[in-house]
Structures are given as C-alpha cells and as structure tokens.
Design a protein that fits this description.
631 residues; Rossmann fold; four-stranded parallel sheet; four-stranded mixed sheet; 4 domains; alpha/beta; 14 strands; single chain
C-alpha cells in the first residue's frame, strides 16, 4: 500500500526522498504522480519538490522535533508558554531542534502534552529494503504529559545534549493509571477470566454451524441483538449499529469490508485510546464478529500514528488471535476467513470522517466523498463496507453473549428509561480528568461529581464544551429564550415548568435528548472553571479547523481562514462594540452568512461545525468578548 510504505520511508529518513518515492512507484507498478499526490496531502509527510531543494532541505532537517499540543485542555494548561520556553531552550542548539505547536495529540487527560521525537538519520541513497532492515533507522519518541514547564524544559535540554538515562521521565500511555479500573468496565464480558476464555462470541458463531451450516441464523440473531440493545455509533453520528450491519450484509458486491475507525483526532477525545490500550481483545473480536456477520473477508483497524502504544497493542492482539485460529484463513476450522490488519494513519483530522478514511485506505488523498451513495453499498474499492467506531465494535461481543444474548443486557444498563452505556472523555478543570464508562441517561452533573471528583479547587463552572470544539462553548445555565420555540417545551420537562433557565448539570447524557434540544453531544466533554480565557480557547479552536480543513470545499477552505481572521481581530483588540454587535446579529452578520454558506456547501461535518466556537462565544459570553474590544 502506498500510504503505509510512505510512512515507513518518512519514519526511516525523516522525509520522503525523491529516489525512494520513484523506487516505490516502480515496485508497486503505479505512476509516480500517484505516489506524489498522496505524499503531498498528509501532514505527516515531508516532500521536497526538486533534487536541489531536497539536498538543502534534508541537510537542514532537525535531529529533534518537539511537538506541543495547542488545543483545548492543553491551551487551558498554558501550551503557548511551553512553546515559548522550549523555543528558547532550542535556540542554543541551532537547527538541531525544531519546536512547533500541533493539533490535538489525544492526551487531554494529562495536559499539556509534549512529544520529543528524535530522528535517526537515514541514507537516502540506500535501498528501501536496506532501510527497513537497518536498526539505525527510525525514530524515538519521548512523551512528557502534564508536567511543569520547567521540568519539561530540563528534560528536553538533557535529551538535546545527549544526556539521556532511564531516570528521565517518559510518560508512556500504558504506565499512566487509568481513571476508572478497566476490570470494572461492563463492556468487557471477560473481566477476571483467563485470556483463553475470550472470543466467546466468535466461538459461538462458529459453533452455530452444527445446526445451521450457512451461519444465517447466527447472523440474524446478532443483528437482532444489536437492534434490541439500541447500540448507537459512538464516533459522533450516533447511527443505529444494527441498521449499518444489515445494510452491508444485504448489499450486492463481489467483496465486503469492515473498517474500525480509531482515528481519534477531535480535541478533547481520547476514549478509544484507552479501549485500544486496556482492552484490545474487545476491539479485535468486535471487528472479526462484524466481518463474520456481514460476510467480509478483509478488515482494517485504522489508528492515528501518534498512538504508538495502541498500535502495538492492537498488532499484538491480532497476532495472538491469528495464532489461535481466531483470525485469518479457516477460522476455528469453519471455512470462514477474515484478514485483519492495522492501518496507521499518516495524520489529518479529516481522516476521522468515514469517507475520507476509506479514501486513505485506498491510497487516495483523504478528501471526503459526496453521499449518496453510502459506504454500506459503495465503500472501499466501491464495495459494501461497514465503518464503525472503536467503542461501537468493542461493545458488540458482550451484546452477542452476555445475559441471554438478546441484547437486553446492554439496553438494561441505561438509567430511568434510557438504554445502554457508553464512554466519555472528560478533561479541563475537573479534579480527575479521564475516560469513564457510564450508564446512558446519567446527568452531566452526576458524571462530574460522582466520577470526575468535581471542579478543580471547588471553583464555579464557567463553560462546557460538550462535543469538543464542534458544539462550541455553553454556559452552565442556558436561558430558556436561547432555545428555539419548538424545543422549549422539551427543556421545561427537564428544568421544571416554572423555570426560565436550564441548568446544564441536569442534562441527561443521551443523544436523543441533546438532539431534541438542538445541542451537540460527543465523546469529548471539556470543562472550564471561572477564570478561563474563552477568547483564547475560541481562537485555538478556529485555528484547529483552519489547519485541519482538507481544502476540497472552497467555502470551507476560505471560510475557516476567515474565521481565524475574525477571531484574531477580536483577540488583538481590533474590533469595537459595534463590530461585535454586527457579528452577533443574525440579520446583518457576515459571520452567520459565512457559517450558512459553509454548512450549505460542506461535504463533511467540518464545514458545519467550524464556526461554532466563535458563534457560541459571541452568543453566550459577552463579558469575555467585551474585555478584548477596542474602546
């Protein structure tokens, strides 16, 4: 595959040598432009357009790259100050060190996140196979999470100077204590059992051949269990899992595929990281079970490249499953097969959008597709394809075997009329940020108090971001008139008939409820205490969307840059009150016209969500805005 081969070259040399790309094109029997069009799209790749620029550029490549996350929780914990201090430390080493701020690294529970990557210099003149076999190639990553700026600088200086020993901190993901004991997760039906007891759903599926050689009854049973469970997609869209599985199973095509979406790049979201690290067997079994049900013989687990430990955990689990006949050819001597492989993402938030992800796996530029047709009928290589999130697939084994296997077991986990359970990533100003499995229907206040230990220092809450940057910022209490007339009756049922405002702490964390209230609810919940600079947060979010727009839709490409420009004008005092009022006025606001144009023309959700941080700041936090206005 072009993308995976380019990743190996990038990791080997620190850039993509032109000779190596030409050799790759020859080896894969594809035109050189196909390699170049992929190489120039993904942010992880470094390409030089000419031999002379490559000669100069390769010589100037830094030995060390320091990446500091700039988004949401990391911004809240002083990421700009870390960048400034590290740049000063790097200056003493000339071009040997490069410091840069980057989009979310998925370690929001340990903000701020800093990664030091040391590149081993590769010889661009060597053959590709030699480069892969040489132990001198590749890179080393040192992670520093949630540490004081002085300590981060001290460690970085030691690394830059070559004074590295085992006593220097390296904050590996697996060594970080989970916020919730995975042994208590209801998602893991095998908790406390030996490893050999796992994959019971696969074993049950294969055993069904004794009464039904076609496996049809077991396929129907599992899809029905997903329907009874009311399992929803946990990647953001919240579609019904059983419906997707049914559509792929019933679609016409020579082949079918399953893709597990582990490209977790939304700022504030890191739940899939924990599932892949702590329970990779559930993800692998869920993928294999889905493949058996829909009739797919090929499956991919797509993981962002910054999740090195999760990638390794998944690969080890797949190898174990293959060793014991649970994956690959002739699964448990049933005649069934499923080849499952990890596909490492070369970066880009847009790859989390399912059609863009499919494009990347096909070795194309990861630009979203127009729909219809849907992936369930025309997905990978135009074949029926099931795409589900890590968490969605990880729930499938337990739903298929727990209780009586009907799906009621999962549905009964919900509170007071709600169905199911799910994971949330909580970060920001809470005492115990982390990943929590909770029953659906729990209120936001209960999640914060009973799981997250409340707000740091007992401070009042200033704002919530209930879907990372996508839903913008909400105050802790929403006036009733901030809701549309058609939703106010629904709000009153939650707040009380006599209430004139709604306390968001009373919000049940259920997608059905939030959709009725026209609010967004994702896996990322970021909490801001009083004193937080929401203008800085807004600008960081707008810069995130600008950096991560793929550029395919012109209004999104231009509009995301315009949103940053407006945000910078506000932050730097270039706007007065009259200008702020115009921005907030739906009838005359260029912001609302821009947002509408982006929403109307966007192929994916980025264009729709990008204006929300700025729009919500202007709507709900006028005092924060006024502090930055020109007088």
């Amino acid at each position: 595959m072009i993308v995976q081969e380019l990743l190996r070259l990038q990791d080997t040399f620190g850039y993509l040598p032109r000779k190596q790309m030409a050799a790759l094109a020859h080896r894969l029997s594809v035109p050189l432009y196909r390699v170049h069009e992929v190489a120039t799209f993904f942010p992880h790749f470094t390409v030089f357009p000419t031999d002379e620029e490559e000669r100069r550029g390769a010589a100037a490549l830094p030995e060390f790259e320091v990446a500091v996350c700039r988004d949401m929780a990391c911004q809240l914990r002083g990421a700009p100050q870390y960048v400034e201090a590290l740049e000063k430390a790097a200056a003493a080493h000339g071009g040997k060190v490069r410091v840069r701020s980057v989009s979310c690294l998925g370690r929001c529970d340990r903000a701020p996140a800093v990664r030091i990557v040391q590149h081993a210099s590769g010889d661009a003149g060597s053959s590709h196979s030699d480069a892969q076999d040489s132990s001198n190639h590749g890179h080393h990553v040192r992670a520093l999470m949630g540490r004081p700026v002085a300590e981060v600088v001290a460690v970085a200086q030691s690394v830059f100077a070559g004074r590295v020993d085992d006593r220097l901190p390296d904050d590996r993901d697996i060594a970080f204590p989970p916020s919730q004991n995975p042994a208590e997760w209801r998602i893991d039906a095998y908790g406390g059992q030996p490893r050999e007891a796992r994959y019971a759903a696969i074993r049950r599926f294969v055993a069904s051949a004794s009464t039904d050689p076609s496996f049809n009854s077991e396929r129907v049973r599992i899809i029905k269990a997903l329907q009874t469970a009311n399992l929803l997609g946990m990647g953001g869209a919240g579609g019904r899992a059983y419906k997707k599985w049914s559509e792929v199973r019933e679609a016409t095509g020579e082949r079918r595929y399953v893709v597990c979406n582990g490209d977790e790049s939304e700022p504030g979201t890191f739940k899939d990281r924990e599932l892949l690290l702590r329970a990779p067997h559930l993800v692998v079994e869920g993928i294999l079970l889905a493949a058996l049900v829909v009739g797919a013989e090929h499956a991919f687990l797509y993981i962002r490249h910054e999740y090195e430990e999760a990638i390794e955990a998944a690969r080890q689990e797949i190898a174990w499953a293959r060793q014991y006949g649970l994956c690959g050819d002739n699964i448990l001597n049933s005649g069934l097969r499923c080849d499952l492989q990890v596909f490492v993402s070369p970066g880009g938030y847009i790859c989390g959008e399912q059609t863009a992800m499919v494009q990347a796996i096909q070795d194309e530029r990861a630009e979203p597709r127009n729909r219809p047709p849907e992936l369930q009928t025309n997905g990978l290589w135009n074949m029926p394809t099931l795409v589900n999130n890590v968490e969605t697939l990880a729930w499938a084994p337990a739903i298929a075997i727990a209780g009586d296997g009907s799906g009621r077991w999962y549905a009964d986990h919900g509170l007071a009329g709600y169905q199911g359970a799910r994971f949330f990533s909580v970060s920001g100003d809470v005492e115990k940020p982390g990943v929590y499995e909770v029953p659906i229907g729990i209120t936001l206040g209960e999640l914060l108090d009973n799981y997250c230990g409340g707000i740091q220092g007992g401070k009042p809450i200033k704002a919530f971001a209930l879907s990372g940057p996508s839903g913008g910022f909400l105050p802790p209490v929403l006036p009733l008139d901030s809701f549309s007339p058609e939703t106010r009756d629904k709000v009153k049922k939650l707040a009380g008939e006599d209430a004139n405002a709604f306390d968001l702490r009373k919000l049940p964390l259920d997608l059905g409820v939030t959709r009725q209230l026209k609010l967004m609810l994702g896996a990322a919940i970021v909490v801001y205490a009083e004193g937080s600079d929401l203008v800085a947060q807004m600008l960081a979010c707008q810069r995130f969307y600008q950096a991560e727009s793929c550029g395919k839709c012109v209004p999104c490409r231009i509009g995301s840059a315009k949103l940053v420009s407006i945000g910078e004008d506000l932050r730097t005092g270039k706007l007065d009150q009259a200008a702020a009022n115009r921005l907030s006025d739906r009838q005359q606001s260029e912001l609302f016209a821009l947002a509408q144009a982006m929403a109307d023309t966007a192929i994916c959700g980025l264009g729709t969500s990008a204006p929300n941080p700025l729009k919500s700041l202007l709507a709900y936090f006028p005092q924060d805005v006024s502090k930055h206005l020109r007088t």
